[in-house]
Amino acid sequence: KPPPAPEPRHYRAHQRGEKTSTNPIASIFAWSRGLAQRAKLDNNPALEHYCLALEKACIDTVEADQMPKDLRVCIKGTTKVDPSEYLLSEEFIDAIAAKLSDILKKPLPKPTPGEPSKLENANWDHYAAYENETAEQVFGDVEKNTEK
């Protein structure tokens, strides 16, 4: 399922040339997961490395306290945040790109012989912990839990 689109008023502000603060993380992760699957199908370790590096760059950027307005609002618990406390859309993407560049300068890790390739990002479990579980494992036996 694709991430939700920005609200029309936000897009209209962008069209008028106003500075906006949009959070692209959901879109980035949607693409990185799709490309990671492509890497698996094509046995492409360089693409796999890029996907994991991109996700890590997003996480590291936010953990370094560089984030768009919506995340800053969540952290502060109020909509009253000063513009100096968050990054505008282009600034945030530039910050992610800088982190990504640093990560990609490191050599591609060599796979351990006999060990399957891992397309998992250790952080991914926090975003989709039940991704590979059955509905029964996640929700329990629905018939037993439903009052009659």
From TrEMBL:
Assigned keywords, A-Z: Magnesium, Manganese, Metal-binding, Oxidoreductase, Tricarboxylic acid cycle
Any one of the GO CC terms: mitochondrion
Example GO BP: NADP+ metabolic process
InterPro entries: Isocitrate_DH_NADP (IPR004790)
GO molecular function list: isocitrate dehydrogenase (NADP+) activity; metal ion binding
Names of the cofactor(s): Mn(2+); Mg(2+)
Region (Disordered): 1-22
Listed Basic and acidic residues bias regions: 7-19
Family: Belongs to the isocitrate and isopropylmalate dehydrogenases family.
Protein name, UniProt field: Isopropylmalate dehydrogenase-like domain-containing protein
